[in-house]
Amino acid sequence: MFCQQCGTETQPGYNVCPKCGKVLSWPTAPLAQSRLSRHLRTVGTLWIVVGALWLIPSIILLALGGIAHLAIPGANAIARELGPFVLMLLGWSFLVVGAGGVCVGWGLMQHQPWARVTAIILGVLAIFHPPFGTALGIYTLWVLLADEGGLEYQRLTRAA
Ligand SMILES: [Zn+2]
What we know:
By secondary structure, the chain is mainly alpha-helical. It has 5 helices and no strands.
């Protein structure tokens, strides 16, 4: 390293420049990052991706629900009524889950105050949907619950 004041090259281990006496500030190693700060972005991205994946079937289901009455033969009145209804219901529930996933992922990446608790709740729910939901749920909880009491997350929130 070179002295910031006089430019003399100094050997590692010197705290003071041997020539001009300036206190040397060696570049410090980056602080060991916490699990939260290392993984928060990844968790957020995964939720956005998973949410987006849920939106695709939801749009297909809603579209099918919209045209189902054309596909069902007129004689079957119950199927005519019920078919589109079930498709729409499934489509809307997929839409809510997908939009929720995208929102919480975005919220985590933006360090939104509400996103941590929401992600923990969604993470617990996701665990019951193997295999990907389980993996994502465990990963989410592993990252977010490492942050005891959410103190570090609160600091990120203020910094954002
Ligand atoms: Zn110097």
